[in-house]
Amino acid sequence: QLANHGALTLLGCERLEGRRINEHAPSLVGRLQLWVNNPTLRPQSLKIAGSGLELQPSFIALDLGPHHQTLVFLEDLAQITQQAQQLKLAALGRLAAGIAHEIRNPLTNINLSVEKLKYPDIADREKYFEIIFRNSQRINQIISQLLFFSGGAEVLQRPLIVQELINGVITNATDRLTLKTIRLQTNLPHTPIRIMADRSKLT
Q: Within 13 Å, how many C-alpha atoms sit on residue 93's CB side?
């Protein structure tokens, strides 16, 4: 058998040339024999007695001749688990950043409205109370959607019109535009643009 340095390290061997591999890793040979009998079978992981490493083997037949040469791959499951955890933490960080951004916008609208209401002679006081109420509702909606997504909710696609989705986004931004005295003009096509999507995951 031939083995590269990585495989020798995982198996805890110095060399395998001219030696029977079942002397060093009998469980690996057992997995190989099961795979030869049923190549569609996913091999079970195995533990190396000396190091305690848990390895995931996989096999590829190099030829169909009488010698049945097979290429063996060994993966350290602890390393794979660590990499998966790092990917999970990175995804969680991106999710947290997105949530923070979504919540910061209505909070900023509320803070700006409160600043306006500090002046007793400010006109249209009711308008700013309405902005506070709407944005409080928006924060509650974001939290409800987050809880909804965390439950592994199914994606329910329905026919939607893109122009209506855009107008909905503009409606959510109306308070910020009002508080910043920004005038927004749109020029959307009159012909409806239809798509299939889950509205709850778009707005």
A: 6
